[in-house]
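Input (structure):
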């Protein structure tokens, strides 16, 4: 099956690529500025089709030091990207890090070729030069990284009120205990061991009211766990959360 596509920071990518990028950001200890995402057929000629499919992302490093640029490449490689620093001396582009998610199901032909070149310890460019990035990660994939660094189980820190969930379905402003309940449900849905939504989806997109955003989160939870999709926090959703150790009260 194709990877599930989402919008992340204004760019189209799939959920696996976003999860990998967010893990790399944690290793780098800072968020990345995105120059180009995936599924961008014909968008940038210099990309030579590598961004036509999934698994591709370009990171803006124009304002970073040489050491910081290497650190970005290393963080991306550590989680399973074939990643290289691209410089103006190499082509008609600014300083950026070009990354392809190894093992992505939606890679374009050009991106798949670059992954093969990465495994051959080459630079992924037309000149087929030697790899110029941090060595030692050529066999890494996202799945291997997760196996070596399993995320902790979500730890319930309170009960979830059904009344608060019903209120969240129709109201935007929520504070106090009920507001905390809504935040816990959304954080649980985004936890790597749950994976119903991404971290980027924990807050509403610009112009989307919180109550509609909450309904969307619940619909995604229901889709993820193969429940009837209603957008309502019902007994079926409550049952799933109970399996994760949460206590559901009226």
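Output (sequence):
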């Amino acid at each position: 099956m194709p990877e599930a596509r989402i919008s992340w920071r204004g760019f189209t990518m799939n959920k696996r690529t976003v999860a990998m990028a967010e893990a790399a950001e944690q290793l780098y200890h800072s968020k990345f500025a995105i120059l180009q995402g995936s599924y961008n057929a014909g968008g940038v000629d210099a990309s030579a089709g590598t961004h036509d499919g999934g698994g591709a992302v370009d990171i803006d490093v124009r304002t970073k030091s040489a050491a910081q640029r290497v650190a970005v490449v290393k963080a991306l490689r550590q989680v399973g990207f074939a990643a290289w620093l691209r410089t103006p001396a190499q082509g008609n582009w600014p300083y950026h890090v070009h990354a392809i998610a190894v093992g992505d199901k939606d890679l374009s032909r050009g991106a798949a070729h670059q992954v093969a070149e990465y495994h051959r310890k080459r630079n992924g460019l037309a000149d087929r030069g030697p790899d110029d990035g941090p060595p030692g990660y050529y066999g890494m994939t996202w799945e291997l990284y997760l196996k070596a660094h399993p995320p902790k189980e979500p730890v319930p820190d309170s009960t979830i009120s059904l009344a608060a969930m019903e209120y969240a379905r129709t109201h935007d402003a929520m504070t106090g205990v009920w507001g905390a309940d809504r935040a816990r449900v959304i954080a649980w849905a985004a936890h790597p061991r749950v994976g119903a939504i991404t971290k980027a989806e924990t807050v509403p997109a610009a112009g989307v009211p919180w109550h509609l955003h909450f309904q969307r989160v619940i619909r995604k939870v229901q889709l993820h766990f193969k429940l009837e999709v209603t957008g309502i926090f019902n007994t079926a959703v409550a049952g799933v959360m109970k399996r994760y150790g949460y206590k559901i009260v009226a």
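Notes: The mean pLDDT is 92. Residues 5-148 form one domain.
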